[in-house]
Amino acid sequence: SSAQASGLWQFIPSTGKTYKLEQNHLYDARRDVIASTAAALDYLQSLHEQFGDWHLALASYNWGENAVGRAIGRNKAKGQPGDYTMLVLPEETRNYIPKLQALKNIVANPGAFNVDLEPVPNRPYFATVAGARDIDVNVAAMLADVPLEEFLALNPAHNQPQISKSTPARIVVPVERLESFVSKLAAYDKALSEQKPASAHAPRKLSMRPARQI
Fold first, then answer.
1. What per-residue string of b and e applies to 89-105 under the rule 16 or more CB within 10 Å gives b?
2. Cα 36 to the chain's mean position, in Å?
3. Which tens digit of pLDDT belongs to each residue from 16-42?
4. Is the whole model's pTM more than 0.85, yes or no?
């Protein structure tokens, strides 16, 4: 992204900081699935409260609330309505909302569009574990008994091959691997990391959180 947007919800650095998404050489919360989703929901709610309309809120999410606000102001200066359909928008933003609506329609009623979607069970897919020590991602993946590629996909916020205990991120594992991961981690008697410790913070207790679904 030319605007340096990153992560599932494409936060630019400044907006990420506004919504408390930490960004440093160890960790970028914009790529943290849980943290960025919570921030995105807060941001969308804020935009809706600002504009009073979901179309304008979504346009602002894509283009920026200041840009949308200026477009509304230009219309009002000409005596024209300031609703989404009347604004002069960049092509990307103009197409953004119809694409979202089309996706919603397909997911809600795939048969009407001759689309066959694989069912997604209505249950949590992953759970989180608070790290007590620095741990290399390959060691964590091994203890979680998941392929490294899948582990990295679940934990994309880390900028180093080590998950540092100094970051606010929790380790994300498939929910069915949670109990086994916690047990193996507690019993592991070898070095968890061959990397230089990323922080001198005191270790925290290992804790478990209920599985979450997004």
1. beeebbebbeeeeeeee
2. 3
3. 999 999 999 999 999 999 999 999 999
4. no
